[in-house]
Amino acid sequence: MPELPEVETIRQTLKQLVINKTISYVEVYWPNIIKHPDVETFKQLLENQAITDIKRRGKFLLFILNDYVLVSHLRMEGKYYIQQQDDSLNKHTHVIFTFTNGEQLRYNDVRKFGTMHVFKKGEETTNKPLNQLGPEPFDEQFTFNYFAQRLKRTRRNIKSILLDQTVVTGLGNIYVDETLFKAQVHPAKKGHSLTNEEINAIQTYMKETLNDAIKQGGTTIRSYVDGQGEMGMFQQDLYVYGKEGEACHYCGGEIVKLRISGRGTHVCRTCQKE
Asked: Is 48 left (phi over 0), alpha (psi -120 to 50) or beta?
């Protein structure tokens, strides 16, 4: 699933391709992707709307239009491509936005898990799904005190806490594993048991890891590409994710893969004491 760095990279590349283009009409081939409003209204609202900006909230893309905001979540395999009207149609293309210049923004999704919502401007943040999100790691609200308070009052493990988008939004499996390794915190450790030093380390390395990943266009593990079809390069700098059986970068011990809260989790048992 694309996480914050991948979605940010997609946002940046798509901006170069679709800003100030006007939607002539919309075609929907898999209605379940459209969550709000109903499909016919969704298509009608977007007609003759120009894309004036693209923003991001956590893992969500926000297409800012003249009067509305299109909120898009890519889930596992969602991708956007710019193509021409006469280009052949991929069987995994489920939504097409045709612009007045004849170009098309096509949404492809092999797994069909992606979602789209359209709201009037200003209403997108007060409705699901955006109103359920916690602060991003880079937000001013994501202070040490906020983070520490959320951790101290739960007995959940730190892995599941960091994956909880209501606590902090944007992180997924890859960047949680990388952050906890760099902070030398075992992912099974309970939130209430973390020291202030460990909390500070997690917060620091979370931001550092995400920033580094954004600079390299995100991480391509399976099929992720940006809005121009380019792979990310941060996978070359991963320390533990996908490295089971390899030597730890710090101590030389073996990286192992565990199952924590139902998620595959990569750790160095020497550097990350349970």
From this structure: left
**pLDDT digit string, tens, across residues 153-175:** 999 999 999 999 999 999 999 99
**Angstrom distance (rounded) from CA 96 to CA 85:** 10
Please name the residue that has the structure tokens 């988008």.
Answer: 165
126-151 tens-digit pLDDT: 999 999 999 999 999 999 999 999 99
Torsion of CA 61, 65, 67, 69, to 10 degrees: -10
**Which strand ranges, in their side-by-side order, compose the sheet holding 34-36?**
34-36, 115-120, 68-73, 60-65, 51-57
Q: Rounded to whole angstroms, what are the CA distances from 168 to 96, 97, 102, 149?
A: 32, 32, 40, 13
For the chain, the residue count is 274
The pTM of the whole model exceeds 0.85: yes
User: Which pLDDT does position 234 carry in this prediction?
Assistant: 64
Domains and CATH numbers, the chain: 4-132 (3.20.190.10), 144-268 (1.10.8.50)
Q: Which residues are catalytic?
A: 2-3, 59, 263
